[in-house]
Amino acid sequence: MAVVTYREALRQALRYQLQNDERVFLMGEDIGAYGGSYAVTKGFLEEFGDKRVKDTPIAESVVVGAGIGAAMAGLKPMVELMTINFSLLAIDQIVNNASKLHYMSNGQVNVPIVIRMAGGAGSQLGAQHSHSLESWFAHVPGIKVVVPATPYDAKGLLMTAFDDENPVIFIEHTALYASKGEVPEEAYRVPFGKAELHREGRDVTLIGYSGSVHQASRAAEDLAKEGIEAEVLNLRTLRPLDVDGILASVRKTHRAIIVEDDWKFGGFAGEIAAIVQEQAFDDLDAPVMRCSGHDIPMPYSGKLEQAALPQEHEIVELAKSLV
Amino acid sequence: MKTDRAKLLQTMLTIRRFEEKAAEMYARGKIHGFLHLYIGQEAVATGAIAALHDDDYLVTHYREHGHALARGLDPNRVMAELFGKATGVTGGRGGSMHLFDVAKSFMGGYAIVAGHMPLACGLALAEQYKGTDRIAVNFIGDGAVNEGEFHEALNLASVWKLPVLFIVENNLYGMGTDIRRVSAVTEIYKRAEAYAMHAVQVDGMDVNAMFDATARIAERVRSGGGPAFLEAICYRFRGHSMSDPEFYRHKDEVEHWRRLDPIARLKSQMLSDGALSDEEFDRMQQTAEEIASEAARFAEESPEPALETLHDHVYKERA
User: What does pTM read for this prediction?
Assistant: First the structure.
């Protein structure tokens, strides 16, 4: 299997879709002539032309809304929003239109759109380019929320997103674009709603997604040196959420820590903790814990930014306190 | 395209009577929530929609019963939707503000002001992409023009030369607020001109004028002339919704506009032309009455949606 970057894995999925489905087109700010702010679509304008790869004005709401309208008319648009922070300018379209049209129309309309955006911090981009707002989208019924952690996930989940008949919010992590991993050259699909057992263990379950899977993995390695075997779950999608997978792991290890970059207060980790205590209370030997980002706007300084994010040593200390 | 005035008159009468019946049903507690009546504005939907192809997309706002009836949605199923019944056009899921009938290219009523304008751009984009001559027609109210999405949509439509026709129903009030108090430029078509878009203003109380202007402008859009904008000056005779006490308008202003009633206007024109007799008009009114009464009866007797369908259609499953 070839070793490629997360960025290249995404490119492979997009190219496959453009080559194999005439209904697919891409649009977004600077995705064409510029090549995409994270270079995911570099060269696509030359390869596929401006009917399939559209540079848009900086106007997130109409770009997403036009994608929704095109999807209602039978096309398969992929809209790129540069960063998740900018998606807030389009949140009316995502929440009031994309997520609700199938229901409101009693099934007459559906919205097969893929909305890609970069989330997460770690690149010193300041408070308005560095947040993890996936829980805001995961809160909304009618949309799906995808959070790939590895190049393998990135390609396979993006392929699945294009097969889906519903709006898919596809959140890439800015700090992962250059990360590498094994990716099959051929087309393959990674199903939604099925977590990956990233590392097996027996003493505590570390639940992560996107960038936090890697933090949890490194923490698990440190814990192993001290004789604690941590299991690491990579959620892959927040909605649908692999509740069965989470519960199965917790029933095995009897302890759970959720690791996420998002703000702790009202974040997605709280949802997982609630599900675990509702459905697996008797299997728990310790309270479900969260290792989340600090409740502050992201600072620019590299030192402060790192301190605002979950740290591996914090995961290790939390795990040791539970076992 | 030639106007069939009798048909236009019948459609306006039907919308008027249907709305009056809906108001009655609201007062009797059969219809709940918000009910935004279209009474007074019948000429806009009737004239415009008659001038379009049946498969041109309609994307409209929350005051959309008139557009739905003008497009030929089943009045029984529209009324049943207002009642929230299973037989309604969206099975009781959408209600008054969210009518849909995709088989009739009626792509919905939307209740976030201006939030539906990007969708119309997208529908138009899809048809441009597919190479058809279908256009998207987007009805908005004057309240929409100060939303950011108005500007985003007009700009995108213009730079991409999308086959979309925006029709603003300028009834001078955004809910209860006079346009002059909240809009820097009250002649809305001028705003569209700022986006290099062909834009015209038309008397929205005159159904013939609406028909002619729409037929002309839609043809321009259909033949690749890019997006266009039509401002229909009109007036609603009743409050914003059934819960509106309507303290904000002067009686003489309302009276002034009532004298411009589009139905009375077409009727007297046709009577003086000899195109209509009083007996024929009575029969048309009778037809409207029967349609409205039958719709209310149908809605009343229809079943409630089944509770076990509560979670249906949150997600579309793969076929």
Answer: 0.96
